[in-house]
């Protein structure tokens, strides 16, 4: 597994990751892209623990996601199964585990201030941190996708399952968008990734 992980995370993070994964009852699997999550953690019926991470993530997002899930495992071991998934026990564990990685040998200098700010109070997903999510996206392979906040008002866009929406006004942190087929209004996070739809495709 370590040889496989070398393909996905920054080279200077390998030794630290080996230390964190040194548990006989912890399994790490790399999965194909899942639209609703970057990774997950669960305790298996046989008592072992499994972490999965999406293979399509860039190396910096992959590392953050992997440590995020390791923090779930360690918080479970330290505090038991009754804690909240992203409660204070997990937050403190994630902060502690991530701190040794927050240096210029592993992350580009432009990401470090954003990561430092994010880890003052880490959220359930780094995607909810708009500035960090946008900065991390700059290291993705080109995919022709656009963040919702970049879509012009009233322009149309398509999400992963093919449904088409028209962007509306912002409500606090999310955007009201109307599904063209049904006329229903849905709220989208500002950094949801979508495909712009050219007007002539709707005619």
Task: Characterise this structure.
- The chain has 2 domains: 2-137; 146-201, SH3 type barrels (Roll).
- The chain has 6 helices and 9 strands, in the order ααβββααααββββββ.
- It has helices at 2-5, 14-20, 59-79, 88-98, 112-118, 130-137, and strands at 26-31, 39-43, 49-54, 146-147, 156-158, 164-171, 174-179, 185-189, 193-196.
- The strands form 2 sheets. The chain has a 6-stranded antiparallel beta sheet, with no helix packed on it. Strands 1-3-2 form a 3-stranded mixed beta sheet, covered by helices on one side.
- The longest helix has 21 residues, at 59-79.
- The model has no long low-confidence stretch (mean pLDDT 91).
List the helices and strands and how they pair.
Layout: H1 2-5, H2 14-20, E1 26-31, E2 39-43, E3 49-54, H3 59-79, H4 88-98, H5 112-118, H6 130-137, E4 146-147, E5 156-158, E6 164-171, E7 174-179, E8 185-189, E9 193-196
Parallel strand pairs: 1-3
Antiparallel strand pairs: 2-3, 4-9, 5-6, 5-9, 6-7, 7-8
Helix pairs in contact: 3-4
Mean pLDDT: 91
Helix content: 25-40%
Uncertain parts: none
Shape: globular
End-to-end distance, in Å? 50 Å
Largest sheet: 6 strands, antiparallel
Overall SS class: alpha+beta
Total domain modules: 2
Number of strands: 9
Computed Rg: 19 Å
> Going across the major beta sheet, what is the strand order?
4-9-5-6-7-8
What's the helix count? Answer: 6
Give the amount of beta strand, in percent: 15-25%
Query: What's the order of the H and E elements?
Result: HHEEEHHHHEEEEEE
């Amino acid at each position: 597994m370590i040889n496989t992980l070398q393909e996905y995370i920054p080279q200077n993070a390998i030794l630290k990751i080996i230390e964190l994964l040194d548990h006989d009852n912890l399994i790490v699997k790399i999965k194909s892209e899942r639209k609703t999550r970057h990774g997950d953690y669960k305790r298996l019926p046989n008592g072992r623990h499994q972490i999965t991470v999406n293979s399509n993530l860039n190396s910096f997002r992959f590392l953050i996601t992997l440590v995020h899930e390791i923090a779930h495992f360690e918080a479970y071991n330290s505090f038991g199964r009754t804690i909240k998934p992203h409660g204070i026990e997990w937050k403190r564990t994630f902060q502690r585990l991530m701190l040794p990685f927050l240096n210029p040998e592993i992350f580009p200098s432009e990401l470090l201030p954003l990561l430092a700010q994010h880890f003052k109070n880490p959220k359930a997903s780094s995607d909810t941190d708009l500035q960090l999510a946008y900065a991390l996206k700059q290291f993705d392979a080109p995919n022709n996708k656009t963040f919702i906040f970049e879509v012009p008002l009233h322009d149309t866009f398509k999400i992963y399952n093919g449904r088409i929406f028209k962007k509306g006004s912002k409500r606090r942190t999310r955007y009201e968008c109307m599904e063209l087929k049904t006329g229903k209004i849905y709220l989208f996070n500002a950094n949801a990734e979508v495909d712009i739809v050219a007007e002539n495709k709707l005619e």
